[in-house]
Every structure is written in structure tokens, then in C-alpha cells.
Amino acid sequence: MKIKTQYSCQNCGQTSAKWLGRCPGCESWNSFVEEQASAGQVYPSPRDAALELAGGPSEWVPLEQDPGDSQKHLHRFSTGIGELDRVLGGGLIPDSFILLGGDPGIGKSTLLLQMARGLVETNPELKMLYVSGEESVDQIRGRAHRLGIMSKGQIFLAAETQLERVFANIKELKPQVMVMDSLQTFSSGSLESAPGSVSQVREVAMRLMALAKSARIAVWLVGHVTKEGNIAGPKAVEHMVDTVLYFEAEAGQSYRLLRTVKNRFGSTRELGVFEMDGDGLREVANPSSLFLSERKEAVAGTAISASLEGSRPFLVELQALVSPSGLAMPRRTSLGMESTRVSLLAAILEKHMRLKLAEQDLFFNVAGGLKLTEPACDLAAAAAIWSSHEEKPIASDWVFIGELGLTGEVRRVSQPEVRVEEAKKLGFKTVVLPRSSLERCAKTSGLRLLPISRIGELPSLFC
Ligand code: TYD
Ligand code: MG
Question: Is there an atom of ligand 1 within 6 Å of 106 CB?
Fold first, then answer.
């Protein structure tokens, strides 16, 4: 076979026949590296390997045929970890191809080992193969023992970096679920480029995708994220996988957030919350407790909001500090909420509540390190700024929900009733909400609901 040389961008996977200083795809400099592509035969192996495993070519079926069989396709395995099941869209689909990305050391291997335990506990027939290109079998076994994972002959470990050998293992073992930890360490013998290069990453992912779909194996790919926040060669892989999950942590925090970035089988707004301790990852059933500070008495400059992440409400505490500035350009610093949004809210308060913020520094923070993207937290943010400016404490059992418009109106939010229910569950007593959302929340009893139409009405609520 004739070997052809090509250059590919190590950042985004763009290929070119000649070397380029700057990638036309992602505009990064000096990212092109010479790699060998097999000419005349594009990806011959995945198809062959897949056909071999599947025992022949696929057939086509009419859409309406065979409901019994299609039911089988819809079946999902429970991973035994509620947070993970929810983020996946209700469990693991048997032939899905999933990418789990995150910083090195964040807990990806730990999560997947714990998933192994949950999977075999809830699915007694299931076999799972954990292939590590990073650790020896003894190391993985040692970690599994520390985490208290018993296999009962259903979990198999392999330390391997050669893709073809992994395929040979699969052929023999026939697992229903497998983990490849991590993508960057595997290489296929059909390419000469180094493991971790874009062409290898793409080849490995391509062949695993074919495997997932043809042999009906749920394949997990672990991908380390680079300093820039990309999974190495991610653009080459993200379009191939069904689901992309990111595992992340805020600096200095022990909790971990599992986010869905893409999901063909469920919502992409789900958020799983875990805490890392000595016994591995623990699910956080009541995440609001993480993001609320523990004080009971009212202090000026804080207000609580109910943010919705996917299907789940979170109560979060927003904090503002307004203080006279000696600077010509007062400072506007924000953590956890986009600073342009905070400046915009400050402008709305100046205009519609006559707050004199122009000569004040404004510091803004979301407690617990959560990043808020929802405009439904606007009202609470505005209330925190107002409370700090006026030095008027807001009672700690109040919750604010509502989006602010530039004209000072408090606009409706999505699913207000879910947020109000969460506030009630956590023992809050008063919810300030958009007047237009009042009717939808009227069913929730035992809470005082205070409707508000314009931000200017805020002070009158405290009379
Ligand atoms: P790991 O799963 O190896 O991360 P990744 O696969 O994403 O690189 O997690 C390693 C970190 O987790 C390491 O810093 C130690 C910590 N850890 C605990 O705190 N408790 C535990 O029980 C385990 C297994 C790991
Ligand atoms: Mg790892």
C-alpha cells in the first residue's frame, strides 16, 4: 500500500497536503504536524473489524417493523449512580458512544470505576471491560479495592495501548460496556503517527464508534482536557460520539460538576453534582446545600435565587459589595456571573431605582463557585446590589426569581413552579417572583408569594 504524507492540525484536526504556519480552521499557529495517511484506502479497518465482530453486513428494516426489537433498543442500563443516569438522559444506552472529558486528576477514572460497580450491581448479566492505557492492571485493581468495588466476575481489566489488541480482547470477552482510559494513549497499528496525535485520536475514535454501533457495546472514551480547555483533537471526535460529558471542579472546591455538552439521547442542560472524599466520589443529593452559605441571620448584600440546571433547581446565594470608590473608573468585578450582565443590572438599578452606583466599586460573587448563566437570577442579583447599597439586610428565608428587562420590568422565567417547590422543600418562607408567573405557582401552599412587576417596587416589599 502506498503511504501518503499529510499535515494535520494538532488542535482541531484540519488536514492539508502541505505544511501551513497557521491553521485555516482554528487559526492556531504552528500546529501542523506531518503524519502519514494510508492512501487509496480510507479507513479500511473499522468496517472490516466491525463486520467481523457483527458477523456480517447490516440489514435495513421498515420504520414500523418489529416493535419487540425496537423496545430492546430503547432499554437503558442503570449505572447505579443516580446523578450519572440523569446526566446521560436516564441511563446508559447499550450501543452508545460517550466521551468523558476533564482535567487530569479531576476524577474521571474514579467515576468510571464506580460506574462499573453500579452497573454490575444493577445488571447481573452484564460484562464490562476497563481498558487503561495509563495505569497497570495492579494499579487499577488497587484503586478498585480502595473504592470497595467487588466484581463477582463481571468486571475485567486490561492495561493496553494497542487498539488491535483491545479489539482481540473484545472479540473474546464480548462485554456490553467498555471504558477506554484515555483516548490519547491508544494507537492503531494501521497508522504510524504517535499516540495522541490527531490522526491517531481520530482513527481510534472512528474504529470504536464502528464497534459501538455494530457490536452493540456502550463505549466510554476518556479524554484529558488541555490547558486551553479542549480535549486534544476534540473537534475530530465530538461529532462522532453520541454524548459528550465534561467533569469539572472549581479551584479549591471538593465538589465536582458533571455537565452534558452534547447528548443525542437526552437534554444537554443536566448537571450532576459529586463530592470527592477519601472513599471516592459521592453523589450530592441536595446540591443547594453546597451553594448556600450557612448563616441564619440576615446581612446586607446577599440574596438567594433558584436557578434551573437542566431539570433540577438549585438554590444559590448571590453576594454583592458596593463601596465608595476612589478611582476615576470604579471597579466592576464579578465571579460566577458574566460581568457584562452585572454591569447591565447596575445600569438598570441606576436608572429605575435611582441608585448612585457611578462612584461606587461593585464586587459581585456567586457563593460556592457556581457559574450562573440563567437570566432568572437577575432579580436576586439586583436585590443583592440594592441591599448592599442601601445597607438593608434581606431576610435569609427569602428567594428571588425573575429576569430583568432594560426598561426595569421583571420578566417571567421558565418553570417557576419547580423553583418555588425547591425553595419550599429547603425551608424558605417567602418567594419574590414575576407577577406573570404568580398563577403557575399558586398551587404551592405554605409559602408567601410576593409578585413584582417592576424593579422599582423592590423597596416596597420590605415595608
Ligand atoms: P482520577 O480518577 O485518577 O482522575 P482522572 O482519571 O480524571 O485523571 O482521580 C484522581 C484524584 O482523585 C487524585 O487526585 C486523588 C483523588 N481521589 C480521592 O480524593 N479519593 C479517592 O477515593 C480516589 C480514588 C481519588
Ligand atoms: Mg485517569
Answer: yes
Say whether pLDDT at 324 is over 60.
yes
Q: Is 184 in the pocket of ligand 1 (CB under 6 A)?
A: no
Residue type, 200: Q
Q: How far is the CA of 144 from the centre of ligand 2 (A)?
A: 13
Q: Which residues are 245's β-sheet partners?
A: 100, 260
> Given CA atoms 161, 163, 164, 165 in this order, what sign does their dihedral have?
positive
CA 134–ligand 1 middle distance (angstroms): 14
Q: In DSSP terms, which residues pair with 155 in a beta bridge? A: 128
Pairing, β 302-309 against β 312-324: antiparallel
Helix (H) or strand (E) holding 208: helix 198-215
Does residue 68 register a pLDDT over 80?
no
Radius of gyration (C-alpha) of the chain in whole angstroms: 26
pLDDT digits 0-9 by tens, 207-263: 999 999 989 999 999 998 765 655 555 567 888 999 999 898 866 677 888 988 889
3-state SS record for 21-62: CECCCCCCECCEEEEEEECCCCCHHHHHHHHHHHCCCCCCCC
pLDDT at 43: 47
Mutation test of ligand 1: which of 276, 279, 281, 282 has the most ligand atoms closer than 8 Å to its C-beta?
276
Pairing between strand 243-248 and 255-263? antiparallel
Q: Which of 100, 110, 115 has most ligand 1 atoms within 8 Å of CB, for mutation?
A: 110
